[in-house]
Design brief:
The chain is mostly beta strands. Helix content is about 10%, strand content about 40%. The protein has one helix and five strands; from the N terminus they run E-E-E-E-E-H.
């Protein structure tokens, strides 16, 4: 699955909510909504964040 830039996802490896910043080859670049360092994840390790997860993290879904 391909996620659009700006989408909120959960890195299922760590349970971390993150925002999609871009793509490099088959990997997705993501970053926590409050900023910080980006990391890469394979698309199969991500899922779209639910509305409730976004609200709980203080971001607009």
């Amino acid at each position: 699955m391909t996620y659009r830039v700006g989408a909120y996802v959960v890195d299922q490896r760590t349970g971390t909510l993150a925002q999609v910043m871009g793509h490099i080859g088959p990997r997705v670049q993501i970053r926590r909504p409050d900023g910080g360092r980006e990391w890469e994840a394979p698309p199969h390790a991500l899922r779209l964040a639910t509305r409730d997860e976004c609200i709980a993290a203080g971001v607009r879904p």
